[in-house]
Amino acid sequence: MALLLFFAAFALSAATHAVGQPAGFLSIDCGLEANYSGYTDTIHGIFYVSDGSYVDAGENHGVAADQESGRIRPDLTVRSFPSGVRNCYALPTNAGNKYLVRVVAFYGNYDGKNSSSSLQFDLHLGSNYWDTVQAGSTKQVYEALFVAWASWAPVCLINTGQGTPFVSSVELRMLGSELYPHVMTNQSMRLHFRDILGPTTVSRSVARFD
């Protein structure tokens, strides 16, 4: 399955308020304790669940205390994978439906090693290369569009020998079949660049995307 690039530009930006969790709408807070029933993000109204039901390996960690300020709740925990070369999340899908999958990685010095500048690992969608995560000091976001080929889709973190893979959150969104016609069963797309083409603040009287 080939991975193409897609460009996304938004003329205006506004908060999205989710009501409940519609079919194909899944938000996973990686590193959240497995016995935790989940929570609703107070900023966007999105319900996050633990990743315990979607992955069977890894360790839970919290970011360093001095990295917590100004962060949304899903960024405060990570799941790391110190063992194994390939560790995968199994995301529930319906074969033939189109999806957006988003992986967020915020290092936040969770391991106390201050190794963000050299830490990197690969992401795979199924058996196909998706992108290379370069941790850095800020939150990294990776997105891909694909047509599901089975009842679940593996999103995998690959240890390339340059540090322990980790992840902060994984999100899955089912899309309408008419969107992104170039995305097909044998061809996916990945995010290359996104920008906001407009004011940095938008009045709700000008734009409302609730």
UniProtKB/TrEMBL annotation:
InterPro entries per the UniProt record, alphabetical: Malectin-like_Carb-bd_dom
Main subcellular localisation: membrane
Superkingdom of this protein's organism: Eukaryota
Gene Ontology CC annotations of this record: membrane
Membrane topology: Single-pass membrane protein
Subcellular location: Membrane
Domain spans labelled Malectin-like: 28-200
Signal peptide: 1-18
Keywords, alphabetical: Signal
Pfam families, alphabetized: Malectin_like (PF12819)
Protein name per UniProt: Malectin-like domain-containing protein
Organism field: Oryza sativa subsp. japonica
